[in-house]
Every structure is written in structure tokens, then in C-alpha cells.
Automatic annotation (TrEMBL):
Lineage start: unclassified sequences, metagenomes, ecological metagenomes
Organism of derivation: freshwater metagenome
Record-linked PANTHER family: RHAMNOSYLTRANSFERASE WBBL
Matches recorded under Gene3D superfamilies: Spore Coat Polysaccharide Biosynthesis Protein SpsA, Chain A
InterPro entries: Glyco_trans_2-like, Nucleotide-diphossugar_trans
Protein name per the record: Unannotated protein
Domain Glycosyltransferase 2-like residue range list: 156-339
Transmembrane regions listed in the UniProt entry: none
Length: 436
């Protein structure tokens, strides 16, 4: 831990992974953490007890404060994260003893600790300019940051389509019509327009029904070129009037009414470049929980039950990811243009991966939030597979980033989406040599 700080002179704090130790001395439930994730830290004290901090930084932020019993560590780490870089040392360097009266043994042992944690997060939000109400989350020890919108800018929902139809839940549907209709019927966000980029093969009946459903919020943009998802998204963005762009696959259906407002709330933070949604298959399984780029790209927790809380509750908390799928993702127009838009050299696949990596290269955070939620009928209207040219282009451009995902712990097995650990040696993966 000290070596990690020595290697990073600007860093104010170092933390490591941990596990739980039973009364009989058996370790279990290791928590392999991401590198510093401020969004996740607002929703959960994932850093917990064992940290090493620079004395001058601790003194500068006022040390431990009275009135936060049980959450002193969370409060201090939030304040330190506001003033300087935080480094993560992968590997289980301490055991959290499961004493009879500890939270490790019983989450209800110290209810006052979670009340203090909520206040610590609320104080932090006020300090960093996030106008929000902070509530207890659905699970003990988690917190919901409900952002207030300073305005409701026009959101342009860009939907590429061929006007395809299919059967979902024993009912024939035109996907793009139902995608728009679900937002019109269920969304609480007041200011949207629909930019539907329609191939020439789109049936006239679909266009007529779209006009009925979308009304004066709808603009249909004809597309007569060979299939290119990236090109269609860029054409849609050119036709859009909104300050925010929501890229949405046509084979989707809105679940959470506040989804678009949730996107806009995160995009109010100028350091957030892109926000992605929780996507479910028609059968309720999880389709997307953020991208993983460690020997990827793959979807995090792909195929898990939609009701699963995930490893260390990660499915219930907004958090930074290295990328999110463009099947349902929002950006400020200025960021989309600044990073170079979708690269049309990726006509079918990896276009969102490439875009996300360019967003992060420019220093923006990418946030995945479970509070924005759609059904995604899994690319039923997209061309299947990818070309070798697309894969070669992606790897040639981003090989290092795809081998080093800062939000995926190197103690975990790469190329998997289930958070299984590597073989361990004395609590530290044999493949992990130091901190990062």
C-alpha cells in the first residue's frame, strides 16, 4: 500500500481488496474491487476499512468527523476522493472479522451506521455540486442518489430501423413502433423527439403507424445506403435538434418510466461523457450490465437473472464502466461531436466499444445505471456476426485498453462475465504483482 502511494506521488489514498473471516478463522466472500469508482462510492462504501492515506491530505480535509459513527471511513474516503487521486492495490490484503456484533455478521447490527453513511453521501453531493436527494437503497448499505434536474433539455432519441417485425410474448409486433410507443406511454421525461433513420425496405405500414404514435415529435430520415449501423446513427444525429442524444435500438421497450430523466441527471455532470442502461431479455434475464474489456469486449453478467443483485451488489448501484452498449445510451451532443462520433469503419459491431474508448480517452467518465431500464430483444433486427476486418481494426487501435480494464479486477478470470477469481496464493492472485 505504501509502495502504491510512493509510485503515485499525487495520490492521496490507497485501498485494497478484502474478504470476510469467520469466527473459526475461515476466509470467504472476497470482494475484488474496481479501481477508483466515485459513482459506485456514492452508492456503496466499497472501499471500507483498510486504507493508507497521506497525513497532509487527511489533515487538509479535517480528518474523521464527529456525528458519523459507523460510517467514519466512508465519510473520510469521500472527502479524500474529492481532493486527489486514489489508487487501488489489487489483492486481498486484509480480512474483515465476522464478530457477532459486526455488520460483517449481521447487516442489521448497526442501523445507525447506514444512516450516517446516507448523510455522508448527501454531504459529499453538496460539496461536489450534485443537486440530489440521497435515500437508502433497496439493500442495506446502499444509497440512491436521486438527482434533481436543473433543466429538461430536448433529448433526441435516435433509432435506426428496417421496420422489422417479430413475435415477442406471443404477440406480433413492429419493433420500432413499439419502441416509440413504450416511451410515449410510460416515460416521465417531458421533452423528447424521435429521429427514426429508416431503410428503404421499411414497410409503408410501419411508417404510417410511427407517424400516428410519434405525432409531431417524430422525424423520419430516409436511408438508402448499404447497412451501416454507425452511419445510420451519425445521420440521425445530424438530423437531431436536441442537446442530448439517446441512441436506441429499435428492438427495445421502456421498462423504467424515469429512465430518460436518469440519463439526463447523470449528463448534468460535465465529467460524464456517456450513460448506459440496464437491459433485459424478453425472458427477464440480464442482457447488459456494462461492458467488460478484460480479454473482451463482453457484456457484464450477461444472462444472469434480472432480479440478481450481482457480485457485491453491483447490479443495484450506478457505477463507472469502461463502456456501455449503444443499444440504449445517452450522450451530450457536444461530447459526441468532440470525440468524433461513431466510426463508420465499424458497420455492424464494436462501434459502441470504439466510441466508448474514445470517450474515456478524452477523460470523461462512462456510467452504467440500473435505474434506466429497457427490454432489449437482443439484436433481432441487426445483421448477425462480425467481420474479421472489424475485429482487426478494433484490436489494432485498442489492444492495450482491451487487455486492461480498470473497472475489472485483475484477480478475476479475464474473458468471463461472472466475476470468478483466478487461482489464489495467500490471498493475492499469482498473476498480480502489484498495485495500479
Amino acid at each position: 500500500m505504501v509502495a502504491a502511494l510512493d509510485s503515485n506521488p499525487a495520490a492521496v489514498l490507497a485501498y485494497s481488496d478484502h474478504d470476510i473471516l469467520t469466527a473459526s478463522g475461515r476466509p470467504f466472500d472476497p470482494f475484488y474491487k474496481p479501481d477508483f469508482s466515485p459513482e459506485r462510492l456514492r452508492g456503496q462504501n466499497y472501499i471500507t476499512h483498510f486504507v493508507v492515506a497521506r497525513r497532509e491530505a487527511v489533515n487538509a480535509v479535517g480528518g474523521f468527523r464527529d456525528g458519523y459513527d459507523g460510517a467514519q471511513d466512508h465519510d473520510l474516503v469521500l472527502r479524500l476522493g474529492e481532493v486527489g487521486p486514489v489508487v487501488h492495490v489489487p489483492g486481498v490484503l486484509y480480512h474483515w472479522r465476522q464478530a457477532p456484533d459486526s455488520v460483517a455478521a449481521d447487516e442489521n447490527a448497526k442501523p445507525y451506521a447506514f444512516d450516517a453513511g446516507r448523510r455522508a453521501v448527501a454531504d459529499h453531493c453538496a460539496r461536489v455540486g450534485i443537486d440530489a436527494t440521497v435515500l437508502h437503497g433497496s439493500l442495506r448499505g446502499t444509497y440512491t442518489v436521486r438527482r434533481r434536474l436543473s433543466s429538461t433539455p430536448l433529448v433526441s432519441v435516435v433509432i435506426p430501423t428496417r421496420g422489422s417485425s417479430g413475435v415477442v410474448w406471443d404477440k406480433v409486433r413492429y419493433y420500432v413502433v413499439d419502441a416509440v410507443a413504450s416511451i410515449e406511454a410510460n416515460s416521465t421525461y417531458p421533452s423528447v423527439e424521435y429521429i427514426v433513420v429508416a431503410d428503404s425496405v421499411t414497410p409503408p405500414a410501419v411508417l404510417e403507424e410511427l407517424a400516428r404514435v410519434g405525432g409531431d415529435k417524430l422525424r423520419i430520415v430516409p436511408f438508402d445506403e448499404p447497412f451501416n449501423f454507425s452511419r445510420k446513427c451519425n445521420v440521425g444525429a445530424d438530423a437531431a435538434s436536441g442537446d442530448a442524444l439517446l441512441f436506441l435500438n429499435d428492438d427495445t421497450e421502456l421498462i423504467a418510466p424515469d429512465s430518460i430523466g436518469e440519463f439526463v441527471g447523470h449528463l448534468q455532470s460535465t465529467d460524464v461523457g456517456m450513460v448506459g442502461a440496464r437491459l433485459l431479455f424478453a425472458d427477464g434475464r440480464l442482457q447488459h450490465g456494462g461492458h467488460l474489456y478484460a480479454d473482451g469486449p463482453i457484456h457484464s453478467l450477461f444472462g444472469w437473472p434480472g432480479s440478481a443483485v450481482g457480485p457485491q451488489r453491483m447490479c443495484t448501484i450506478p457505477r463507472e464502466c469502461s463502456g456501455v452498449t449503444a443499444a440504449a445510451a445517452a450522450m451530450r451532443r457536444e461530447v459526441f461531436d468532440a470525440v468524433g462520433r461513431f466510426d463508420e469503419a465499424f458497420p455492424v459491431n464494436f462501434n459502441d466499444v470504439d466510441l466508448c474508448l474514445r470517450v474515456r480517452r478524452e477523460g470523461y467518465r462512462i456510467v452504467w445505471t440500473p435505474a434506466a431500464q429497457w427490454y432489449h430483444f437482443e439484436s433481432v433486427t441487426r445483421v448477425a456476426g462480425h467481420t474479421q476486418d472489424e475485429l482487426d481494426l478494433l484490436l489494432g487501435r485498442w489492444r492495450e485498453e482491451l487487455n486492461h480494464d480498470v473497472y475489472f479486477n485483475p484477480c478475476l478470470l479475464p474473458g468471463r462475465n461472472d466475476w470468478l477469481p483466478r487461482p489464489m496464493l495467500s490471498g493475492i492472485s499469482a498473476d498480480v504483482l502489484g498495485g495500479r
